[in-house]
């Protein structure tokens, strides 16, 4: 059974706007799912629905087999949320803020666990500081500590490293890696696509309230792994020579650019290079570039926009 099950979920607001349009998604225990999408795509609305902050208009959501509406408390006990917005009591001490979050979930005192969480997030030395004395990055760390205080089995990270320092990002991903080893399910929304590429097991793309794709990262990169062959010439070009027009080439910075499927039985590269030599062009260098996750993401969103 999946740890998070989302079936036919829609969220419709007064006035008719649909933030979620029939979302189906299953997230397995212990996996890291990166949810990518532009601003307004529905990422935060989906997380809010899973966490019980907003109620879906249609469909069902289960966390650990518990319906987030009918079995709200059981479902919510399993969930930790690091929101985008920093909303903390400014005059409270760091350690008390984290202790309070654990108490809200009815968990018994566990000072060893609180210390461990604060140390991993480099907050232990700041434990007796008031929140208002902290920098923006440190406040973000406190949000993460609060989310971990009640030992959740599912952790949502909603743009957790947006606008924060590189050191926090490094600490954050170390904590995420440790949680994954403990079997915690992690759902990450981010604009830093390189982070998703580095740590996610699967990648989902959402836009206009619809899931466009959910796939294992490695399989996605293979399946949509378009490569680009860049041919640097002795004499830079302004346009594709007439003799090479049948190859679908482009000219970029004076170089010839050829895009191909690296998994195809025939890439056409041999025929192209023979045609380049036959056209009397002198080749200075040849380089290939693998399509990135960002390229794939942008392409999927663009295709949905074109189809709309």
From TrEMBL:
Keywords: ATP-binding, Nucleotide-binding, Transport
Pfam family, one: ABC_tran
Matches recorded under Gene3D superfamilies: P-loop containing nucleotide triphosphate hydrolases
Superkingdom of origin: Bacteria
One MF term in the entry's GO annotations: ATP binding
Domain ABC transporter: 4-233
InterPro entries xrefs: AAA+_ATPase (IPR003593), ABC_transporter-like_ATP-bd (IPR003439), ABC_transporter-like_CS (IPR017871), ABC_transporter_ATP-binding (IPR050763), P-loop_NTPase (IPR027417)
Protein name: ABC transporter ATP-binding protein
